[in-house]
Amino acid sequence: MIRAAITGVASYVPEKILTNFDLEKLVDTNDEWIVSRTGIRERHVAADGEASSDMSVQAVNKLLLETGTKAEEIDAIIVATVTPDMLFPSTAALIQHKIGATKAWGYDLSGACSGFLFALKSGGSLIQTGHKKVIVVGVDTMSSILDYTDRNTCILFGDGAGAVLLEPTEDENYGIIDDLLFIDGSGADALHMKAGGSRKPATHATIDAREHYIWQDGKSVFKRASTDMAEVSAAILKKNNFNSEDVAIFIPHQANKRIIDMAARKAGFRDEQVLINIDKYGNTTAATLPLGLDEVVKEKRIKDGDLVLLAAFGAGYTWGSILLRYGPGKKG
Ligand code: COA
């Protein structure tokens, strides 16, 4: 059986850092509240005019360099994002053009914080049906849809991009092993952007009402995120007859340190097995998982063939987990 192996990962965060102390000057909040309620200390924010495709190109060009891949060899580019440069054309098309991936096709996918999982599953399916090199990007410029007068949301998010290269392997010890993925649109009321889509196109009134920003009922999302991400993380291990000690690293979505701790405890992980970088980046939505994967690979916290568990929960609701063995294995 052909499996999709992750043969490289790279990421990019913008230079500018916004600390909790910077936010104290914008809204009625404080570092102590933000750290104790969320685990976040700072986040990166895009420069003026820096959009999702720009950050993605930085990550993808690093990926191509590090894996010795030519842009013309890429068959497809899938981009998970809720902050595309424009509603159309796709961010995938903009990246394709900027990197010169002359033979690629591709598309954007909207899965919010679970977007990278959904895109990884889609990319894996393309590999299993004959593609040889697929790039999967998770990127979000959350600062472009944050209301920096709303303390409920503006403290939570940051900007970033991450990308992986998927290639076929016939080595059954490598690649994407299994996934559990879900959507539940009954959660739409709890986390959304009210205007700017076909239901409520932009007008002076929508702008005056500040409806082009993220709106969140934090408590409802917190409740669902902390149960569903925990359950789906434990469930995928059980389904595949693994236990937590078999996993080298658990990379959960980074929305709130308290949600991460609950998921880790429920799935049975020790602290050393859990990637936590929410303190540096906040919630970067679709970029969170590839940023985390890049960090554990670059810091050599995992080695070729190690078992990795990814899990996420986000707007939709969307949630899920993917179990994989990192590295190339034997080429398919
Ligand atoms: N600074 C200081 N105080 C704040 C604050 C801030 N930035 N934001 C809210 N508060 C206040 C509230 O007004 C409230 O005050 P009150 O008791 O006087 O009304 C108090 O702190 C508690 O607010 P609450 O909303 O109950 O806090 P919480 O512990 O639920 O934490 C979130 C809020 C947003 C951090 C938390 O609900 C959360 O992480 N939700 C899920 C986030 C998530 O997963 N989102 C996206 C998925 S991708």
Let me know the largest β-sheet. Answer: 5 strands, mixed
The CATH superfamily of the largest domain is known as Thiolase/Chalcone synthase
Q: What's the total number of strands?
A: 13
Q: Briefly, what CATH class of the largest domain? A: Alpha Beta
CATH structural fold name of the largest domain: Peroxisomal Thiolase, Chain A, domain 1
Name the CATH architecture of the largest domain: 3-Layer(aba) Sandwich
Low-confidence stretches: none
Secondary structure class reads alpha/beta
Radius of gyration from CA coordinates = 19 Å
**What average pLDDT do the residues reach?**
96
Percent helix, as a range, is 25-40%
Question: Secondary-structure blueprint of this entry?
Answer:
Blueprint: E1 3-12, E2 17-19, H1 20-24, H2 31-38, E3 42-44, H3 52-67, E4 76-80, H4 91-99, E5 105-109, H5 115-128, E6 134-141, E7 159-169, E8 175-183, E9 191-193, H6 204-208, E10 214-216, H7 218-239, E11 249-252, H8 257-267, H9 278-281, H10 288-298, E12 307-314, E13 318-325
Parallel strand pairs: 4-5, 4-6, 11-12
Antiparallel strand pairs: 1-7, 2-3, 6-7, 8-13, 9-10, 12-13
Helix pairs in contact: 3-4, 7-8
Coenzyme A binds next to α2 and α7.
Give a quick rundown of the structure.
This protein has 332 residues and is an alpha/beta fold. Helices cover 32% and strands 24% of the residues. The termini are close together.
